[in-house]
Batch of 4 targets.
Target 1
Amino acid sequence: MSERSVVFYGIQTDFCPIAYKLIEKMYALGERVLFLCNNEDEVNFYNSKLWTSVQLSFIPSGNKRTILPEDAQFCYVWFATEITLLNTPTCLLHNGLDISNMSELERFQKIIDIFNLDAKSSAKSRAQVYLQNGFTDQKFWYHNAGTWTQGSLE
């Protein structure tokens, strides 16, 4: 088993374009993504916007309202409000959510944690929890004035 990793992206801009670029990257690498949302409205919103926001013409995706559970295996991106493994995800993507059931993280190899820079202290707390759960490879990127710089949560 390879080293489990977390990549934090600190942003001050809209979440969607960054999340969708990362989804395209994960899809190109053959990764399956669980896109964790706050509520069902977000699930529907993010799922519907994926089709119009990515440059690739088609990334198989869905959620429990659009795809039967037995067909979720064909989705590279699954949108949900709780950790579910219907599409056998290897990567968890979310927008700075505090995950209630950390034992579920053992099923993932990668976590993409996109957070607003105003919530840096919360991201720092999550970094410690991830570390305690075996995600030892942690990287931190910050978006400022259209450029990305690597840094830390200090």
Note: The chain has one domain: 5-150.
Target 2
Amino acid sequence: MAESYRSYTSSDGWTILVGKNARDNDLLTFKIAKPHDFWLHIAPTSGSHVIVQNPDQCSRLPKTTLKEAAALAVFFSRSREGGRVDVHYTQRQYVQKARGAPAGQVQLLQFETTKASPLRDLPPDFKDPAEESNP
């Protein structure tokens, strides 16, 4: 069975997980992520849920890790070509699923917003999945 998410490592050494589709986003957000992990998603449109694992339960992400995780949220969204885009982020404990909501759709109890560009801020180990599948 294929992994339900992609995994990257930020410049600061934090693990970043990215969902592949709506069903995998739900699995990643509600089954794999821990309450203190950080959750990110592009603000204006659909896209992948991004989780930054937080085993030490830090209250904030390092600035570089936040930028890289936000860039992944933009890259794996419909706004990939949109330049700098708003990305919401919060800890997973503030993300809820409404009863009957479709896969991948969530509600945020609280969040902050940052801007990110997938052209500048991707993690150092990033490889475009589209390029990996082409020989």
Note: The radius of gyration is 14 Å.
Target 3
Amino acid sequence: MLYVRPEYYDKFKCTADRCEATCCAGWQIVIDEAALLRYKSEQGEYGKTLRRRIDFTEGVFQQDCRKRCAFLKENNLCELYERLGEESLCVTCADYPRHIEEFENLREITLTISCPEVARILLEQKDPVQFTEEEIDTGEEEFEDFDPFFFSYLEDARQIMLSILQNRELSVAVRVFLVQKMAEEMQDIIEVSDLFDLADVFKNYEEGANLAQAVREAERELSAFYDNAEEDFLYSQTVFERLYKLEFLSEDWEAHLERCQKTLYGGGAEVYRDTQNEFKEYCKQASIDGINMDILLEQLLVYFVFAYFCGAVYDDNVFGKIKMAVDSVTVLYQMFLAKWTEQDGQLSRENVKQMMYRYSRELEHSDVNLERMQS
């Protein structure tokens, strides 16, 4: 089995009771079947406690009125872990914040930015992210309905996309345009099941004259787009409003969205454009606690594309995976802008980190939301 991880993977250490936003509250923790069987068979008085605090019908831990896990103590440490040890944890608790995508003889593991510590690590990542590979003998696994031929094309496509996204000679807008255009062209081919033609798409976005031509076309289309303040305004507003179609996991998330929307779009297209331009100048001055906004946007795009793109082998939704990545980074940028506006032209590293992990919790902790963002 080949394991692939981002190079910063080993930097993560759980901050436990020092975490500013515990992962044991605010969302239901699903228990795997093996752990449920262990909890059912636990002997003694603590076994009785276990069974009182678990909803075996739904396969989740009970929560209190604050949506905190029944085993989460007031000091934010896990009572189950303390009483029965690390081996007692269910798969969800043992794996988090690791996000695992499994393919035939391949396991890709990332760290989800819904964890504040992971968000902090990503914020500090300055160089383009590289990925490490390690062969671990776990025995071969077979996946039904897995198309290795299609998957090899997806891997090639993702490598080209990551190369574009990490090309710092290009503006972030151009990089995003190219990756979206490539995904759109791939989707057109996939829908007629003529996969051999995907190689022709790849040629248009690899290094050389073809890529240079694609860049020129992207710059020309983007220039026309940004010259139209109303079109830019409506596009941004439409992307942001997609968030209202998701299920809300946090009680205050809808109010947060409404506040951001009013701040961003309440003054109309011209005010929005002026605010955008001022924020861009602010970001160029590298005054956000040392955060380079272009680098951060790149890291976020790479994060989403690496984690989710190759999952298209199971649903053929190549464009949807890229759309989710681009829309997610777009709305995060808008949230940074809204916070900066609300704070009279100030934005801190802590502000940025909070927006990252709060958005990720709404999106990545819900299969429903992940699917809706890809539609």
Note: The first strand starts at residue 2 and ends at 6.
Target 4
Amino acid sequence: MKKIVIAVIALTLPFSLLAFNFAKPSEPSGKLIFSEPGPHMSFYPVQLTAVNGQNVPTRAHAVWLKPGEYELTLAPQLDGHAKKHMSLKERRNADQQLEVISFKVVEGKSYYLTYDARAEDSLDWKPIAYRIE
């Protein structure tokens, strides 16, 4: 039993050390909101998968980041409507298509991030901040 506990700790420790340290809402920070698809029919939610190259656990709605420059890795959450407008090749693993964007966070601001699928060519679809408060 003792060997199993040691093995579990040894396996989980590297992952806990590599986890990205998000800010708390009470700290100086900006809020990134992901789960709202936006006002336009061709805006889709995005999921944050990494910050500055460090994988992050799935966050359902929002995260807070300290002010500064970041590289965010986002995955689109496309529905059937979006996939109807894509070729067979584009549809394959469309939800796993990762987009890396540079993003500046300012203290006290809220950023609503979405996946913009308005362009005619689906290769031009990209994540955007559609609203900043």
Note: The domain at 20-132 is CATH 2.60.40 (Immunoglobulin-like).
